[in-house]
Amino acid sequence: MDVSPYANVGPKLIDRGLCAVPAVPGTKVPGILVAGRWVRMMDWARRYADRLPSDREVEGWSSGPDRPGVCLIMGRASCGIVAIDIDVEEAVQPVTAALPYTPARKRGAKGETLFFRGDVPSRSFNRHLPDGRRERLVDVLGEGRQTVLPPSIHPDTVRPYAWIGEQALEDLDPSELPELPADAMERIGEAMESIGYRPDAERKPIAVKVSTDGEKTPFRLLNEHALANLDAWVPKLNLCRVRKSPKGFDAVADWRSSNTGRPLNKRKLNLSITPGGIVDFGDGPRKYTAIDLVIEAKTADPDKAFTWLADVTGWSAPLFHDPKPRTKPQPEPEVNQPRSTGDKREAAPWHPSVTDTKLCPGLVGKIADWIVETSDFQQPLLAIGAALVTIGAVAGRHLAGPSRSGTHLYIIGVAPTGAGKDRPMSAINELLLAAKLSHLIGPGRFTSESAIINTVARSPSCVCAIDEFGSFLAKGRSRNASTHEQGISALLRTLYTSSFKPVATQERAGEQFKMLHSPSMSIFGTSTLEELYSALGSAETTNGLLNRFMILENPVRPQRIKAANDSPDPPQEIIDGLRAIYWRLGDLGSGPYHGAGDIPCPPPQIVPWRDEFAELAYDELHQAIRERMDKEPENEKFFVRTAEMAIRMATIRAIGIDPRDPRVTVDDMNWGIAMAMNSAHAMIEGAKDQIAENYWEQSINKVVGAAKRLKTFKIRDIQQATKMRGKELKEIISDLVEIGRIQMKDVTDGRSDSKRVLAYEFLK
């Protein structure tokens, strides 16, 4: 069997204690598998600073496609190995003679690389040519650097790297390599003085050729367009340590070595990307066009770089350059953007793949598409919510996410009255009935804590579609609520977090406790904005009930569009997909998971990460949330479950894509993150403006809500919207003016008004 260079020697090197990672085929850069394709591993210096790859990582890389090469991470990760990379032939003899003998030497296209042990910083030795250019003579590769090893294929010669010393690294114990002497850098410098190296020579900038050609070629037009739209493409390059600057972006040019020997995480942000141009001040300075930068950052050829940049920036070639120009993509429809005139409540910005069901692959997208196609009032976001809870219930108990998270969700679809909330809700039951899984349909209303317990005991994995969910929650907070109604909130919180764990219920007089095993009850509720938050108090935001819910909010009432599909039956493809998930282990294998809730079931199958990139996205989400909570302690309660929610949705999406062998990809994870983060933002806005503890706060919230919708208004406009008394309303308006939430505004129309006309304007 023809194995890849990495599969051939990577595991052997790791057995020796050396940190070997794959190289993207045809390149010299460390790579990682993403959706079956090799891409540049941007964070290899941080990820493998002081550890070896895991067995799971090595197994995945060794079986990867396209024959990846081998990269060795230098420094602590590889027992302190240092490489002296000699770039020019005339430097080989003097440098080799100046250093101790080493049995491990390799050759690529030119020069040699010598391997030692030592604790020396990375650095470069260059000489200056008469035209001002610098020529690299030797690179010292230490901490934070890497080098490609045999038998990887050299990208220029298309031939394998080769060992030219006595032994290969994979055949050596690291202790057999000689130590670099303490004065090794001085020795190298002195040895190269004979070929023109001057340690005290000043750096001279590279002479940059500036085109004087005034022709507007497609390349020039695309470059100009890209510089004018940096936000559309620079973040997508995943440049090392990229960050916003006052004029554009700054980053590290990680495709070249450091001039100071610093590791990537400590290198200066010498790459400047602004509308005025792209310059690497650490290399000359060297200027780049936008297409050049894409070529370097994505290791792409010019044609692929051109196509990628045109696509992500929405650029289309002029007709006189191309008879069949690329059409500029139209903006994706946003379900949370106003579709009618008038000022509306502004919603959080959603990722396009979240709002457009057709951009969501697998069964989640197919179900959401069907719900939208059979609706007169289209609510794509709520349709996605209905798809998630349906698949989550079908997968319940027998599948778990990579972090052992469950697949059950609590979702509330928030939209105005008469805006089409009922269609996603009714579709849930229609789908489960058509798939002959009616036992997964839970009650549409609970009257007590005991009712929920009985439901889970009977059908531990189920989905409950509850209309007017705000009024359902309000009953538990009512002064007249019974102890059974008051216990609903606590039980819902417990069931949400008890994935694959037993839950012991309370025992009361005449009612024996029950042990519920692996409860997986999902909820899909619908409500108006006002009804939902009027049912909640500050207790629900602090006790963790609200942050267990996904808020899918579309504050705009969509226009009525005749349903494109009037068939009462779900497509057979969707039915088959649901049944493929439910019976994925066959009759015998699935049976133990489908029993009653008071009977133990086997442990679930863990849905693994597709690759390291997906797991990294999850880890970085945790870090981002921690930083956000530190900065906004008042909003900590809304973000605390965001990561858990994101991975649950990512897992459900992955299951819908491949029921037989689901794996969570970076795309699944990013999609789940977009959904979860925007839910948190919706909760923050809703709680801030809607939750009230008394009548006066409720009245203020009513006025604020009406003022937000109207933007500019007179007192009679607010009075009509809120049905409040004039005296009470004037007091609230006065208070809102005093605290700076609204202000007086002159709306006099000089053409028709004979007197000055004043109104109010909503500020924040």
Describe the protein in words:
Helix content is 37%, strand content 15%. It is α+β, with helices and mostly antiparallel strands and 764 residues long. The protein has four domains: 191 residues, no CATH class; 96 residues; 337 residues, Rossmann fold, CATH 3.40.50; 68 residues, Arc Repressor Mutant, subunit A, CATH 1.10.10. The strands form eight sheets. A six-stranded antiparallel sheet has the order 8-9-5-7-6-11. The chain has a five-stranded antiparallel sheet with strand order 12-13-14-15-16. It has a four-stranded parallel sheet with strand order 19-22-18-23, with helices on both faces. Helix 22 packs across helix 23. It is globular. The chain starts with a helix and ends with a strand.
**Oligomer designation:** single chain
* CATH top level class name of the largest domain: Alpha Beta
Low-pLDDT segments = 202-215, 317-353
Tally of helical runs: 26
Helix percent band: 25-40%
Query: How many individual β-strands?
Result: 27
The CATH topology of the largest domain comes to: Rossmann fold
Strand order of the largest sheet: 8-9-5-7-6-11
Distance between the termini: 67 Å
**Largest sheet geometry:** 6 strands, antiparallel
- What is the 3D form? globular
Whole-angstrom Rg: 32 Å
Indicate the proportion of strand residues: 15-25%
Q: What is the mean pLDDT?
A: 81
CATH architecture of the largest domain: 3-Layer(aba) Sandwich
Class from helix and strand fractions: alpha+beta
Total domain count: 4
